[in-house]
Amino acid sequence: MEFVDLRSDTLTRPDEGMRQAMATAEVGDDVYGEDPTVNLLQGKITELTGKKAALFVASGTMANQISINAHTQPGDEVICEERAHIFNYESGSPAMLSGVQIRPLPGKYGVLNVEEVEEAIRLPDHHFPQTRLIALENTHNRWGGTIYPIEEIKKMHKLAKKYKLKMHLDGARLWNASIATGIPIREYAKHFDSVSLCFSKGLGAPVGSIVAGSEEFIDRAHRYRKAYGGGMRQAGILAAAALYAIENNWQRMAEDHRRARVLGEAINNLHGFVVNLQTVQTNIIIVDTSLSGKTAPEIAQMLAEQGVKVIAFAPTRLRAVTHLHIDDAAIDRAIEAFKKVSQKL
């Protein structure tokens, strides 16, 4: 059976054009800073973000954790939203690698209340960990691909300046936010001291993320990349895939967003399922199964039997993600599978 695989946009595979770009990439030793294709990619990202420097890394987790490490000292505290990727999906790395603790705060659709963040900032007292960094996520994975409004980002930036705190943006899917809103990546990035971007999700590259910031910040980040074992040698093969992805697969994300909306609306009309359509802003759909009488893993298994793969995100929540390999016919098949499962509830 050929599956419609909606588990993640990380499932994307290089097409023939990307493979050709990888095969013909000019390479050197990136640890020495001598890989021309990596340097070209890093230069491209500095242009897109408006930052002074950038560093190619192996993964989004590495980009985020290097950034936390470069902004903090052991014993510091990092404020983030309670469903944030850096808190839930990065193996406890802030504590393990940077010696910092996370202060998770509740948000609505992934957006933190600025007044509540201000209340959470620690006083300068030796009894307390010291607040050093505010980390935001855009788009927000666990909230369903929601977009962090630029006006709220500006408010948080103003607060951070007031208390001399650093700001990091987990922008793994910032590509999606930019396409959905028309706001350039540079406009988002200028409010942060560092920003990470992922190439291996909706863009369709096989490997890689990048972090951008000031020259001083990237110099520190470079050291931590090495310490994490992340120094890559002839990495231009991977950087070529990222460059191809930006050129060929970025603007088409609007189609992923349109298809996610179609799928979300269809599922929301079925017995046993609820989709909060306010959260379907980009390419992720969260399906509440609590009215079905079955758990999310049980529903996921029933859908798999119908040829559709989704992921159980919580005991009563499923996640479906549209991406490069999901066309209109695949969406039709997914809707039909959900209908058949709904009829069995």
From TrEMBL:
Residue span(s) of domain Aromatic amino acid beta-eliminating lyase/threonine aldolase: 5-288
N6-(pyridoxal phosphate)lysine PTM positions: K201
InterPro entries the record matches: ArAA_b-elim_lyase/Thr_aldolase (IPR001597), Low_specificity_L-TA-like (IPR023603), PyrdxlP-dep_Trfase (IPR015424), PyrdxlP-dep_Trfase_major (IPR015421), PyrdxlP-dep_Trfase_small (IPR015422)
Gene Ontology biological process: glycine biosynthetic process; L-threonine catabolic process
Keyword entries, A-Z: Lyase, Pyridoxal phosphate
Pfam assignment, any one: Beta_elim_lyase
GO cellular component, one term: cytosol
Cofactors, names only: pyridoxal 5'-phosphate
Enzyme Commission numbers on file: 4.1.2.48
CDD domains named in the record: TA_like (cd06502)
GO molecular function: L-allo-threonine aldolase activity
Family: Belongs to the threonine aldolase family.
Protein name: Low-specificity L-threonine aldolase
